[in-house]
Amino acid sequence: MIDFTNLPVRNKTYAGANGRKISVVYEGDLYMLKFPGVSRINTEMSYANGCISEYLGCHIFESIGIPVQKTLLGTYTKNGNTKIVVACKDFTSNGLVLQDFASLKNTIIDSTHNGYGTELSDILQTLEEQTAMDPQILSDWFWDMFIVDTLIGNWDRHNGNWGFLYNMETDKISLAPIYDCGSCLYPQADNSMMQMVLDSPAELEARIYERPLSGIKVNGQKIQYFKFLSSLKYQDCNRALKRILPKIDMDKICKLVDETPFISDLQKTFYKTMLRERKERILDFSHQKLLKRERSKGYER
Ligand SMILES: Nc1ncnc2c1ncn2[C@@H]1O[C@H](COP(=O)(O)OP(=O)(O)OP(=O)(O)O)[C@@H](O)[C@H]1O
Ligand SMILES: [Mg+2]
């Protein structure tokens, strides 16, 4: 158990709307400490589970082989009040600056549409037309992230929540590791909500098929993950599904949940159940449908 309370504090600051953040030095490296935000939906909770979501979401990306920020869970005590916090290792060292996708989008899309607007067609147009990196590599990255966000139920992958590392000296740009997974895995669910979802098939299904919605929109409507993926309408998304699915190792992911510090057995069961169900009912289902469609097309030929 790491206690982050008395570490040296630095002057690096971080934006974002989801809770307090400070920078500290831990074992020689700079970390952003994210404090739990207050629970806006569930006022019964003293604070939301966003720090656990951040830690688990990031480790799930890692288990799938996608570069991601390093995260550690620990505690922080202030005025005798101890909270669970997540430390995110700062990846902007050696003169690298983080440029979010919104700022890249501003180079392509008329700014009346706003870099932070998440209409999918504008995002896809930016992926295709930008010249900072190979459009195929960028498109693959975006859709791979979308598939994993589907698995973990992320409702906040807005254009500020992924991006690039820019080297001021060389003008080189590369993909930034995945960061901000704090809005995945139902961060507002408390014990009674978790128990209710586990006990009721209807409540569970609502949280697989209907919500959370994606942060990305089609025709102004937030994407419903199941509807979108199983429609098989987007070829690049279908390809990402085929690419990512074999890399999802549920045994590994369940072990990760089991070994997560601070959380109760109920929480562990809830996370494992939701992840298993989301994988089977959204990803596996869509994959089977895709294979069936491909087989029948091959047959027609
Ligand atoms: N590991 C990291 N290293 C360096 N900078 C980071 C890292 N993680 C996040 N940041 C920067 O700090 C900002 C705030 O972090 P983060 O997105 O995790 O906070 P948030 O409050 O959850 O954001 P949101 O408003 O999207 O909910 C990010 O937008 C990004 O610019
Ligand atoms: Mg953010």
Draw up the topology in text.
Layout: E1 2-3, E2 9-10, E3 21-26, E4 29-34, H1 50-64, E5 71-78, E6 81-89, E7 96-100, H2 101-105, H3 120-129, H4 135-152, E8 163-167, E9 173-175, H5 191-199, H6 201-210, E10 217-218, E11 221-222, H7 225-231, H8 235-244, H9 250-258, H10 265-300
Parallel strand pairs: 1-5
Antiparallel strand pairs: 2-3, 3-4, 4-6, 5-6, 7-8, 8-9, 10-11
Taking the sheet with the most strands, its summary is: 6 strands, mixed
- Which cofactors or ions or other ligands sit in this model? adenosine-5'-triphosphate, magnesium ion
Helical stretch tally: 10
Low-pLDDT windows of residues: none
Shape: globular
Radius of gyration: 20 Å
State the order of secondary-structure elements, H for helix, E for strand: EEEEHEEEHHHEEHHEEHHHH
